[in-house]
Design a protein that fits this description.
- The chain is elongated.
- Helix 1 (2-18) packs parallel to helix 3.
- The chain has one domain (2-51).
- It is built from 4 helices and no strands.
- By secondary structure, the protein is an all-alpha fold.
């Protein structure tokens, strides 16, 4: 029983790790997979969208700035 609970928690944390860049974040996905199951958490990762990344600013080199 203890081994099953440990596997449940570790697999939920692993699913949460994969969901760290999703809209729910690590704790949201980990809590969802702890409440329902790690398989349901994996399905939530598929359904949950990834928030858009902010545009990256281009670094200007000193030689380009002088030109």
């Amino acid at each position: 029983m203890v081994i099953l609970a440990t596997l449940w928690i570790l697999s939920s944390a692993l699913v949460g790790y994969f969901g760290r860049r999703r809209a729910l974040g690590f704790w949201g996905v980990a809590a969802f997979s702890m409440l329902f199951s790690p398989i349901a958490g994996s399905l939530a990762l598929i359904v949950c969208h990834t928030p858009p990344r902010p545009p990256q600013r281009r670094k200007v080199l000193r030689s380009e700035a002088a030109a």
